[in-house]
Write a structure and sequence with these properties.
The chain has eight helices and five strands. It has 166 residues and is of the alpha/beta class. α7 links the parallel β4 and β5 (154-156).
């Protein structure tokens, strides 16, 4: 069975920061029958909005875009209208669970998880414990998805993703 995965925006930055992008792309190619990495327009846009330079890397944005394109290879999920609706339901439930981050700040995370759910992805890789993976957000995903008979993707962090792939 092929694992279907999406990486949150910050994960691409961590890969670049660790300087393992070439190794990771090679491993992803080797394991392409066991694992497929998907992208989504929201993540690509966030990457394009990244700073052009970092203190130790002149062309950070270009490196991030190249990594995204190499890992996703044109497998970009189309955001369905249902994902927008599901994200709003997540947010309402998130607020009921005590979540305090504004819709504007958490909207992209909710849409990413909603589309991952609708597209039946297995894993969302993220270390964003403040928004996407906060307890209130995870409770919302599981509660809303259960109510609508949807399967919530598994959430793993960058370290676990790296360990599994490398």
């Amino acid at each position: 069975m092929t694992l279907r995965i999406i990486l949150d925006t910050s994960i691409y930055g961590k890969i670049i920061e660790d300087r393992i992008e070439d190794n990771l792309v090679e491993k992803a190619n080797i394991h392409k029958h066991d694992m497929t990495i998907y992208g989504i327009r929201i993540i690509r846009k966030e990457i394009r909005d990244a700073p052009k330079h970092s203190k130790d890397r002149y062309d950070l944005r270009l490196a991030l875009i190249r990594l995204y394109d190499a890992l996703t290879k044109g497998r970009e999920l189309e955001i369905k209208p249902l994902a927008q609706t599901l994200a709003v339901l997540y947010y309402k439930n998130y607020r009921k669970n005590g979540g305090s981050v504004s819709w504007k700040s958490i909207m992209n995370d909710m849409i990413i998880v909603a589309e991952a759910t609708i597209s039946k992805l297995d894993i969302v890789v993220s270390d964003d414990n403040r928004t996407m993976l906060s307890n209130a957000a995870k409770k919302a995903y599981y509660s809303v998805n259960k109510e609508h008979n949807l399967i919530t993707p598994n959430f793993i962090g960058y370290s676990e993703f790296k360990r599994k792939l490398l």
